[in-house]
Amino acid sequence: MVNILTYAITTWHWTPDTWSHEYRFVEEYHFIKSNNKIQILSENEWVDTGLIEPLTQENFETYGMNDLRKLTQITDKYIKTMEYDRDEGDGKIYKAIINASKFNN
């Protein structure tokens, strides 16, 4: 199960004579909570923040994501950080396991 944790700073303005009001977001911060880990998406990689609940305003403002559009973008690329395996000759071997069934339509 994945949850989006959001903290928003908002402003309200109203005029008592007309009871009209304006509501707008000033800033919004988000974390993704999955498997009891609080994470952010940074440079196409999920990063565990190490934070624990209850979260503070400072946690959100310091570490939170402010743009969730990356989570809903359709892409034909998958970026995965490869892990060092071994030295070979003058080079190095890196590898990553990719589940191809995730990408078959």
Q: What does this protein structure show overall?
A:
This protein has 105 residues and is mainly β. It has a domain of 73 residues. 7% of the residues lie in helices and 48% in strands. Strands 1-2-3-4 form a 4-stranded antiparallel sheet, covered by helices on one side. Strands 5-6 form a two-stranded antiparallel ribbon. The longest helix is centred in the middle third of the chain and has 7 residues. The protein starts with a strand and ends in a 10-residue tail after the last strand.
Termini Cα gap: 23 Å
Helix content: under 10%
Shape: elongated
Which strands sit side by side, in order, in the main sheet?
Answer: 1-2-3-4
Question: Tally of extended strands?
Answer: 6
What characterizes the major β-sheet? 4 strands, antiparallel
Q: What are the secondary-structure elements, in order, as H or E?
A: EEEEHEE
Brief digest:
The protein is mostly beta strands and 105 residues long. Helix content is 7%, strand content 48%.
What's the topology here?
Blueprint: E1 2-15, E2 20-34, E3 37-42, E4 45-48, H1 57-63, E5 83-88, E6 91-95
Antiparallel strand pairs: 1-2, 2-3, 3-4, 5-6
Protein traits:
two-stranded antiparallel sheet, 105 residues
